[in-house]
Design a protein that fits this description.
single chain, 313 residues, mainly alpha, Rhopdopsin 7-helix transmembrane proteins
Length: 313
């Protein structure tokens, strides 16, 4: 039997989801539709950014599709059935895919800016498509095998009944978020350092570098702010389960559900952030290799070294 506190917490979560998910749906669907149209119809040439963005839009749109079901499942405590498992699979696949694709975009940007000469060998639309295809296949296969192993369908949808520690959840947090977070932070910081060390010969270049720094910084902040609370909450639940502090579990579960709302907001923010990134970075990328080429002729050093104030633009 539920007590009054649990019913009150449940009602508050339902209200919070309504307040968050309705605007996310209202903004996310048109933003992702416009972004998809821009990258598929307006940008004719296939680039690495175009491949990653199309895959990111597919992942985010799939997550948007699950939000009405999440509202319904939470409000009515839907039992675990085939529909529940299908929606869980979509969430399980597409949130990590969004994280991985954002990580790939950060790596791709880092290679393009830091190693512009080697980038022609390391980067190509076909390689980007192959990586994304591998990730989709791996995530779908893992999700299918994970749910096949489920023996018990008791309890409510999106509600873990067992109080035993789930080591797969720990691996999911570390490999599915915290390692990508470290990669995104490293790549973003290195790119920002390169941009700030760059000399500009005119106001146009200076303005372009400033925009690029702002884009990278905003992308990093959105990524960390949206996803960190949710995955930290999952780690907290694992710690509570290991410690056997079951009295703390209701509060932890509430924290997970609240932070999941923030994580799902990323569905509509990605389209906004990376549209401007794709708009600004091609111009910058086309200019940056020229600087490195001049530097490499002046100084026979490795291209892996960041540009210094001796670079002549």
């Amino acid at each position: 039997m539920e007590n009054c506190t649990e019913r009150g917490a449940h009602g508050s979560i339902v209200v919070l989801q309504l307040v968050v998910y309705i605007p996310v749906l209202a903004l996310g669907i048109p933003l992702n539709a416009i972004a998809f149209w821009v990258f598929c119809c307006k940008i004719k040439r296939w680039t690495e950014t175009k491949v990653y963005m199309i895959n990111l839009i597919v992942a985010d749109t799939s997550l948007l599709f699950t939000l009405p079901f999440l509202l319904y499942f939470t409000k009515y405590k839907h039992p675990i059935d085939q529909l529940c498992l299908a929606i869980q699979n979509i969430c399980f696949i597409n949130m990590p895919m969004s994280i991985f694709i954002i990580t790939l975009i950060a790596i791709d940007r880092y290679i393009a800016i830091k190693f512009p000469l080697k980038a022609k060998i390391l980067r190509s639309p076909l390689k980007s498509a192959s990586i994304c295809g591998f990730l989709w296949t791996a995530m779908i296969t893992y999700s299918s095998l994970y749910h096949i192993r489920r023996r018990s369908w008791e309890g409510c949808c999106f509600w873990k009944q067992s109080l035993l520690p789930s080591y797969s959840s720990l691996v999911y947090c570390i490999c599915g978020y915290f390692i990508p977070l470290g990669i995104v932070m490293f790549c973003s910081v290195q790119v920002i350092r390169c941009l700030k060390q760059k000399m500009a010969t005119g106001p146009h270049e200076t303005k372009l570098f400033q925009k690029a720094v702002q884009i990278v910084s905003v992308n990093l902040c959105v990524f960390a702010v949206c996803f960190s609370p949710f995955h930290i909450s999952l780690l907290l639940r694992f710690a509570v389960e290991v410690a056997g502090a079951h009295s703390l579990m209701p509060g932890v579960v509430t924290c997970i559900k609240v932070s999941a709302c923030l994580a799902n907001c990323n569905c509509c923010l990605d389209a906004f952030c990376y549209y401007f990134a794709a708009k600004e970075f091609p111009e910058f990328s086309s200019m940056f290799p020229k600087c490195i080429f001049i530097r490499s002729k002046m100084n026979k050093s490795e291209e892996s070294q960041p540009p210094t104030d001796q670079v002549i633009l």
